Amino acid sequence: MVVRLNSGGVEGVDAYPVELEVDFVRQGLPGFTMVGLAETAVREAKDRVFAALRACGFKLPPARITVNLAPAWRRKSGASYDLPLAVGLLAAAGIIPAEPLQGMYFAGELSLNGALRPVSGVLPLALLARQQEAAGLVVPPGNGAEAAVVRGLKVFAPEGLGMCAAFLAGAEPLEPLCEPVADTLEAPAYSQDYAEVKGQEAAKRALEVAAAGGHNVLLIGPPGSGKTMLAQRLPTILPPLDFEESLEVTKIYSVSGKLPPEAGLMRVRPFRSPHHTISDVALVGGGGYPRPGEVSLAHRGVLFLDELPEFRKTALEALRQPLEGGVAAIARAAHSVSFPAACMLVAAMNPCPCGYYGDPTHQCTCRDDQRVRYQSRLSGPMLDRIDVHVEVPAVAYADFRGAGNGVSSAQMRERVLKARAVQRERYGSKGPRCNAELSGALLDKHCSLDAEGHALMEAAVNRLSLSARACARVLRMARTIADLDDAAVIATRHLAEAVSLRVLDRG
Predict the structure, then answer these.
(1) Contact between 1 and 37 (Cβ < 8 Å)
(2) Which pLDDT score is estimated for 287?
(3) CA 344 to chain centre
(4) Domain spanning 194-431 has what CATH number?
(5) Which CATH class is domain 2-168?
(6) What does the pLDDT look like over 224-254, one tens digit per residue?
(7) 199 falls in which pLDDT band (50, 70, 90)?
(8) Contact at 8 Å (CB) between 164 and 158?
């Protein structure tokens, strides 16, 4: 008897269907064979499954068992095939009926006592099951909340193999999970606030502009000036994730195995801060079987690179394509996948190796050639992709000891949300999400300048030697500043502020 069940594998951040076929023949010598390009973790499922069956009181008769994972040409990895294999064996042996399995999808790892353990990549599988109009999806309890966010799909989360078999046999009822999710998620509560940052009002303004338009930022200043504090508080002024953005982020964390157990949607914008010793693959993604890197884990959130010149030059150069296109394309001999990587880059650096060049209170001990070599670690094409270059000077003691607080995150977030609302209305649901994504005809249409603006832009290009890419980024920033000012067109003052926010172009 041949029993067929539905499951799925993951490639990139999307799932593909896998049909598990179990051939149970009681003639000939007993044996077990698994085919279909199964990796080690999948082949080892046999031992886990048989131990779980014994622990749950199921006894299979002697038989020659052949298991096929189709399509045979795609690799199968992970422990998510344990549950469909166990259910398929029970159905093929006639212990449970095979009819209830039609149209159902299964995924889950089995412990030796029959309990179900969570696995990665359940959310993409749930989306696939809904697309295939599945009758339901059976997953471990630890993946239930994750799968239940997919609307229009019945999700069942039995505690163990025994309960799952009883449910499929009709001997025990099991109610589907239900977790309605609103289209707009509430803004999370943060423990940090920009009011805690003394002084640095110019840097706060630059970060507000960046948050309003989704622009990349580079903070330059001596040690202890507050660069890290400023960067860490950026998520407190960003808009909350909408449902679609939350779904995108959750998919990435699901396939990478970083989604907390029993967690549903990711409701907080990611903030990733890797150490400067990180490898190219860990930063951008890749490996023998490509996995998302830090730039993808920061999708729809913030990627913070502290001590930017200390990162490997090859790693920084590998970031150029994801920052420009919002996608990390990984190509290998056997696999080619793309991971979403639409994040805000926030970087911090010292002006020189000792950190005190230009600081009036400390003497710089670096030679001119050392400063040049230090700053040359950042290539021109990389700097072109960073919209805002802002100086963060050392805080004066008078500002530091001041009792009054500066502008708060709530005040900044209110202005950012207002500007983002203007952009959503302007571009519509099918257009760019923010000004940083403007390009082509939309850039020409919404970032047009008057004669005075063109004269100022021409002067900036000639004096600062701006590239075409840098010009486009200046125009996008000017559009964001105009949105913060509630202005329909870009005025000269908006363009002048945008040019002033690129201090490295001034030499």
Answers:
(1) no
(2) 85
(3) 11
(4) 3.40.50.300
(5) alpha beta
(6) 899 999 999 999 999 999 889 999 999 999 9
(7) confident
(8) yes
